Amino acid sequence: MKDSCRTPAYFAKFVCTGPECPNTCCQAWDIVIDREHYDGVRKSMTDTPGNAALFKRHVVVNNSPSNQQYAQVTMRDDGYCPLLKDDGLCLIHGSYGIDKLWNVCTMYPRVVSKNIDHYELAGALSCPEVARLCLEDETPLKTVDYPLTNLPRPEGFPLHREIDGTEQDPYLTNFSRVRDALMLIMGDEEELWRRGSFTLPPSPTSSPASISGAAHLLTRYYSPPPWAKVLPKMSVTAVPRR
């Protein structure tokens, strides 16, 4: 396994804007806590009676806890995280360090997946800064190597999804080839409106999709050299609709 992952070039520039963010991520969502970080934060927050009471009131163990989904944080009445300070920063992060912070808060908006023998890093577009980087990037979509040591949790980071190469699901077995073809499409320097012209009509039945139809649309709207590389990748196994 490499000590780096592949990520869109624009996302490699991501830096959290913290209190300057126009829409903090510390609100209106479920924060799930694993057992290890639950125990660590609970111990750390006994440093003051106020912090201990805050933890007890807002960090609740699940009815059927597991090691990965052991507890969760209940939001304040206004929808914000009870651990969000008035300066827009996190109490746990600021007082005890990022190693104590639970996985979901440490990694967001980073989404790490494993595709057989390598890691892939994406950015959740629900984050305003990720959305800005994506929309304002004027270069064709390319991926770059990103060191795992640059992740806020370089080891033991949670995986959003994993493909190990043994799956029987045709959508998963053909995932890499289809995704590589789409990356070539998105990396094409032709006008954006031409990229948007390629749309496969939905199949009215559960019959396998027509690969020849896809090739026809590609050759109709695009011309080589970029598409000369894409067309062979479209000759994947026909996949039935779910």
N-to-C span:
33 Å
Helical residue percent band? 25-40%
Q: List the helices and strands in order.
A: EEHHEEHHEEHEEHHHHH
SS class: alpha/beta
* Poorly predicted ranges: 203-212
* Domains (count): 3
Total DSSP E strands:
8
Strand order of the largest sheet: 7-1-6-5-8
Strand content: 5-15%
| Whole-angstrom Rg | 22 Å
Q: What is the residue-mean pLDDT, rounded to a whole number?
A: 83
Largest sheet: 5 strands, mixed
Describe this structure in words.
By secondary structure, this protein is an alpha/beta fold. The chain has 10 helices and 8 strands. The protein has helices spanning 35-44, 49-58, 91-96, 103-107, 128-136, 170-173, 175-186, 192-196, 211-221, 226-233, and strands spanning 4-8, 31-33, 59-61, 71-73, 110-115, 118-123, 143-147, 161-163. A 5-stranded mixed beta sheet has the order 7-1-6-5-8, with no helix packed on it. The chain has a 3-stranded antiparallel beta sheet with strand order 2-4-3. A hairpin with a 2-residue loop joins strand 5 and strand 6 (118-123). The chain starts with a strand and ends in a 9-residue tail after the last helix. Residues 203-212 have low confidence and may be disordered.
